[in-house]
Amino acid sequence: MEQGTPYLLASSAACQGQGGGDLTLELGSLCFSQMILLDLVNLLLTAIYISSLLIAACKREFRAVRAGDLPFPCAVASPCCALLGIACVCLGLGAWGSSPHGALLFFLRGFVWVSLSVSLVVRPTRFSGAVAMAWWAVDAVLITANSLEKIATGGNLGVLDVLSWAVGFLLLLSAIRVCRSLAAGDGGGAESEPLLAAGGGERRAAFGEAGFFSRLTFTWMDSLLRLGYSKPLGLGDIPPLDADDAAAEACRKFLCEWHRRRRESHKTSNLVLRVLAECHKKELLLTALYTLLRTLSFAASPVMLYCFVSYSDRQERERDLGTGAALVAGLLGMKLVESLSQRHWFFGSRRLGMRMRSALMAAVFEKQLRLSSEGRGRHSSGEIANYIAVDAYRLGEFPYWLHLAWSMLVQLVLAIALLFWIVGAGALPALAPMAICGVLNVPFARMLQQYQSRFMQAQDERQRATAEVLHSMKIVKLQSWEDKFRATVQRLRDAEVRWLGETQLKKAYGSALYWVSPTVISAVVLAGTAAVQSAPLDAGVVFTVLATMRVVSEPMRMLPEVMSVMIQVKVSLDRIGKFLTEDEFQDDAVDRTPASDKSLDVHNGIFSWEPSKGTATLKDINITATRGQKIAVCGPVGAGKSSLLCATLGEIPRMSGSVAVSGSLAYVSQTSWIQSGTVRDNILFGRPMRSSEYERALKCCALDKDMENFPHGDLTEIGQRGLNMSGGQKQRIQLARAVYNDADVYLLDDPFSAVDAHTAATLFNDCVMAALEDKTVILVTHQVEFLSKVDRILVMEKGEITQEGTYEELLQFGTAFEQLVNAHQDSKTTLYSNAAKEGAMIQYQQPMLQQQGSEAEISTGNLPSVQLTQEEERELGGAGLKTYKDYVSVSKGWFLLVLIVLAQCVFVALQYLATYWLAATIQSHRFSVGIVVGVYAVMTTASCLFAYVRSLVAAHFGLKASREFFSGFMDSVFRAPMLFFDSTPTGRIMTRV
Q1: Do the strands 717-718 and 677-678 form a parallel or antiparallel pair, or are they unpaired?
Q2: Membrane-crossing residues (predicted)?
Q3: Is 337 helix (H, G, I), strand (E, B) or coil?
């Protein structure tokens, strides 16, 4: 009976003795090697798979794939595997009498085939599915390799060998099909849940729902990439973030750890770094593992090259196919580990950096909202913006550079160790050029950092000037100052380009140093090896040395930059740490109590904007307000009226006394605050829409007529900083926001200053006295005519409440208040007398406008019937050749482009010629070592010179193009009409400047 191999071995005849006795399992025999290589692998995978099934059964997750969901290759391969298993068991029963050991092997392989059949149907968990797919792929590769080896060595394939090969092909198809199904999101027949729940539920994070294999190979991105290939992606197409990646969660973890450490210790040295490390220590260790794997696999490349060259130098009869296959498998596995570990290192570092950046940005923003008055004096708004835009972003790159720093040192040590392993003492002279190149990199890095710093300063100056011009473009065009400010911006741009040019020239020098360093070091190593004869200079040694130089050159090139980045990170950590440790508002500055009849109570309050100096801003403040009471605060400019409202809010540090507020607060500042968006967005301010209250707020703030005249009603877009709204409209929108908020206590800081008298009277009567009738209102105002209607008046002077009472009481007994009223009456008399003198002149000119007052603040309806801010245009499809042609044409750099291409071609040609020269001369032994190394050094040095020329010309080409593009862009900006600036946000222009 012919006994074909039931599973991945040569035919059974080759594994039996001459007499057909027991299997020959001597050390070094073909059967023993194959059993160790093949059977143990399958036994291990079988054990792992069965263990995963047992764990799933204990967790009551044991479910089979539904028949309708089973992929076609799995449906075909499963019964085939079962039939092969039955065949192996039958062969084992037949061989039991003559060869018990062979029968046991048949039984074992039959069990493996049956397990494979089960794995094609039963995959209850993601882990078991990943193990099953790996098992199928490994079996397919091993079956194919074994069959090809038999054919190459002239062996015979048994029946089961051929059947196993065919089933192995089905297993490979099944692995590919299930993998693609998992990437597509249907789970490949396994139990899975859609990312979008039925009925339009909440979308789930693609990364959070991805399995082990999908995360390993990044196939969880395939669905998004396919969607992007089929149509332009929008924000709604992007999967939501994983819960741990959300900015709110990252900030919560950071602030919890920050406050805990602040309570435990008052040491602030490196506090931000320690908090970040504690919050993300698991992620840091995981990315460190990926970095170590990448470093080890990359440093092992010269060893693999040495093994390949040594294998190729053997005689034909000494070459073992198994050794060659093992080398190929080792190289494939090493490169696979290097690629995957590097990708996961990059992805993990960027993801971790995103969490750190989000946490710091949110923490800085939250801190800015709670910053004390003295803290605000020490940190300007521009500095705070830099903490978010520059320092937090720089710390977002920190995890990548942190792992790069220590991995470069490890890589350099491994490379030096490899050199000593390859050439022995001949590597000693190479330490000198390594040290020299490293020392040369230090001043180069410092010089580059200085130039980069000056370039950034010049860029900041130019951007600051450009932003100021763009913000004041209406005045610039009104005065016809375009040429003057255009010249100012161009002068700052010239200074910026000068430093940019210096930076690019130094980078060109750095590129030459990067290519020269391995050339010099390799030449020294080869010369030293030849001098001390520590190793034979054969092909294996020479090419291994050159490959090791690639491992050496990366740390030598990156270490200076890593040092520079680490210094910048240290500065950013100190800046953010100093800001986060600034004093905040006193949490107990205002005692908040539930809503009651006593709305506000300030007792013996002393407040100061600068408590460290001991100077009081407000002194002896005593205020008591009941529910529904209207209190007016008046006094000369600088008397402390706005500070009084800030003290009620708790924004001024309280030196003594007490402040108690009952219920919620609403504050209307003297300077209106408007965000970009629609009128409705500015009024609702994130609160849900309640139609009746919304209409009431519009009407009492005299905005109903404006809504009728706006082209889109309350959906009309407000331009940047409210530029398409009058001052009165912005103030009324702000007041309507406060009314809609429905607070218990209202603090109004001179809300009528931006409107005319008629509108002010409407707002006072309809809003303050009617809509807020049941609310407590503290009104700061200069309109004396409204004071007679309030319940109580506070007169302030030099930070103190000098008088208090009703209107009649203060007129009768209050000297300061009487002077204030008389001054107001005198100004009105002067105004009316001037108007009477000019009346005769006006009637001879043009008729006076009939509508004054509130209607002067209302839009006349001649706004364009489109939204003010236009949507930003998106370019779809590929860039095409026209973009590159325009880039070259604008800069008139065709000659420079040709020169760059020629330099690059010569550089590549010399690199290949140098390598070919070594390969040819080392094998032939026709030249001395000195000539070989010398010619190689000359060729590579010449190639480095051409690399320097290429970088130099490319820098000049890029600078020339940058000048031309910037000049044309600024010409277009300064010549644009005001409608362009009204419809284009300044930030959109600045991102292109």
Answers
A1: antiparallel
A2: 35-58, 70-96, 102-122, 129-148, 154-173, 404-424, 430-448, 512-531, 894-915, 927-949
A3: helix
Q: What angle do CA 845, 851, 857 make, to 5 degrees?
A: 115
- Going by DSSP bridges, is the β-strand pair 792-797/800-805 parallel, antiparallel, or unpaired? antiparallel
Beta carbons of 187 and 181 less than 8 angstroms apart: yes
Within 10 Å of residue 785's Cβ, how many Cβ atoms?
15
CB atoms within 10 A of CB 453: 13
Domain boundaries along the sequence of the chain: 32-182, 243-581, 591-827, 881-992
> Helices (H) and strands (E) in the chain — how many of each?
35, 12
Q: How far apart are CA 683 and CA 124, in angstroms?
A: 53
- What are residue 368's DSSP bridge partners? none
Q: Point out which residues pair with 623 in neighbouring strands.
A: 602
Which among 808, 764, 796 has a CA at the least distance from the CA of 783?
Answer: 764
What is the C-alpha separation between 676 and 674, in angstroms, rounded? Answer: 7
Closest CA to 512 of 457, 444, 599, 607: 444
Alpha helices in 25-99 (DSSP H): 30-34, 40-58, 72-94
Enter the tokens of residue 439: 């020392």
In angstroms, the Cα distances linking 738 to 534, 631, 742, 751, 784 are: 86, 17, 7, 11, 23
**305: its two tokens:** 């090259």
Residue 371's beta-bridge partner residues?
584
**Cβ distance 622 to 658 under 8 Å?**
no
Range of weakest confidence among 229-233, 590-594, 980-984: 980-984
pTM for the complete prediction? 0.66
d(C-alpha 108, C-alpha 26), whole Å: 20
Contact 183, 214 (CB under 8 A): yes
For residue 61, CA distances in Å to 47, 115, 659 come to: 19, 19, 61
Question: 């390949």: which residue's tokens?
Answer: 308
Say how far apart CA 561 and CA 556 lie, in whole Å.
10
The answer to whether the CB of 857 falls within 8 A of the CB of 756 is yes
Are 609 and 789 within 8 A, CB to CB? no
The second-level CATH assignment, the architecture, of 243-581 is Up-down Bundle (1.20)
In whole angstroms, give the CA distance from residue 79 to residue 915.
Answer: 55
Helices (H), 770-893: 807-813, 815-844, 880-891
**Helix H or strand E encompassing 665:** strand 665-668
Q: How confident is the model at residue 856 (pLDDT cuts 50, 70, 90)?
A: very low
Residue type, 43: L
Residue carrying the six token digits 């980045």: 565
Annotate 711-724 with b (16+ C-beta within 10 A) or e (fewer). Answer: bbebebbbbbbbeb
pLDDT band at 425 (very low <50, low <70, confident <90, very high): confident
SS3 at position 928:
coil
Cβ atoms of 82 and 113 within 8 Å: the answer is yes
SS3 of residue 988 by DSSP: helix
CA distances to 359, 389, 729 from 365, rounded to whole Å, are 10, 11, 29
234-244 tens-digit pLDDT: 778 888 888 88
3-state class (DSSP) for residue 296: helix
CA 806, 807, 810, 811 dihedral sign is negative
Residues in CB range of 295: below 8 A, 6 or more apart: 407, 410, 411, 414
Q: Contact, 275 vs 254, CB < 8 A?
A: yes
Using alpha carbons, select from 987, 970, 988 the residue that is nearest to residue 385: 987
Write out the two tokens for 480.
Answer: 């016809």
Token pair for residue 321?
């196919």
Residues 6+ positions from 871 with CB-CB distance below 8 Å: none
Q: Say whether 158 sits in a helix, a strand or coil.
A: coil
The residue length of the chain stands at 993
* Residue 588 half-sphere exposure toward CB, CA atoms < 13 A: 4
CB 733 within 8 A of CB 764: no
CATH superfamily of 591-827: P-loop containing nucleotide triphosphate hydrolases (3.40.50.300)
